[in-house]
Amino acid sequence: MGRLTTLLWAVEHHECDVENEVICAPENVNILFEYKEPWFSVGPVNFTRTSFLIFLAAAVVIGLLYFGLRRNRLVPTKFEAAIQSLVEFVRDGIARDIIGPEGVRYTPYLLSIFMLILVGNLFELAPLINFPITSRMALPAFLSLITYVIFVFVGFKKNGIRYLTDTAWPKAVPIGLRWLVGLIEIVSTFILRPITLAVRLFANLVAGHLMLSLLLGSGIAFVLAVGEIGPKAGIGVVWFAFGLLMFVFELLVGVLQAYIFTLLTAVYIQTSIHPAH
């Protein structure tokens, strides 16, 4: 709701020309994503709305897993069955299928990031929140950094220095190309992986959040200005309808991006355990 309020404020203060502009947008769209005003501070740390939403997402994940798994009933409730199915999906469909038998030990981490990203993404569609916490680069970057530390640590623990030498000098490649392929693999594995992992999640959620905010905000702005622009207010109805359709699309994107992030994390761990493959 905060983003829609911003757009409506722009209309009231004539910063948005509803007579000549098809889409009503603020001059600086960063305001659609940033919450810099702290609610309170603890020493040098400012506690903002974004900080609260991150803790809220973590609390939701803990609550879902606790109440969904605390009872091992023979006949679970629908809620418990849904949570158990989700756990089995991550454990069997991602951890075991991608990493192999050793993947079970990584299930808690994979399940945690999948659930946190999923809940954080779906905050975009939650009433009175309408803000995906993954549209702030800090969270995807932090999760990517943890994944990076895990798969690099696992790679050296399982293979020793061979993890680095096999990456830099791949024996399956013709010897004349090994230096080139090795250079590409070194850059890809130790530099690009965490960056692309974070940017992929961040960019998709930013794009969707921006489209939802602008379409719904423009729709309301044009409808409210019907007295000034007359029939042109019908544009607002069209934009608002598109915004509602985007809700369905963003639901799919939110689930898919959580799955892709978790899947790639499992792939990176698997290639660290078996770098020759």
Detail the topology: elements first, then pairings.
Blueprint: H1 2-12, E1 40-42, E2 45-47, H2 49-69, H3 78-99, H4 107-122, H5 138-159, H6 162-168, H7 178-224, H8 226-229, H9 234-273
Antiparallel strand pairs: 1-2
Helix pairs in contact: 1-7, 2-3, 2-4, 3-4, 3-9, 4-9, 5-7, 5-9, 6-7, 7-9
Structure description:
- With 277 residues, the protein is an all-alpha fold.
- The chain has one domain.
- 69% of the residues lie in helices and 2% in strands.
- It has 9 helices and 2 strands.
- It has a two-stranded antiparallel ribbon with strand order 1-2.
- The radius of gyration is 23 Å and the shape is globular.
Work out the strand percent: under 5%
Number of domains: 1
Helicity, in percent?
A: 55-70%
* Average pLDDT reading: 83
**What strand order characterises the main sheet?**
1-2
H/E series, N to C?
A: HEEHHHHHHHH
**Number of H- or I-type helical stretches:** 9
- What is the alpha-carbon Rg in Å? 23 Å
Largest sheet: 2 strands, antiparallel
Termini gap: 49 Å
Count the strands? 2
Return residue spans where pLDDT drops below 50 for at least 5 consecutive residues.
Answer: 1-14
Q: Class by helix and strand content?
A: mainly alpha
The geometry reads as globular
Task: List the main descriptive attributes of the protein structure presented here.
mainly alpha, disordered N terminus, 277 residues, 9 helices
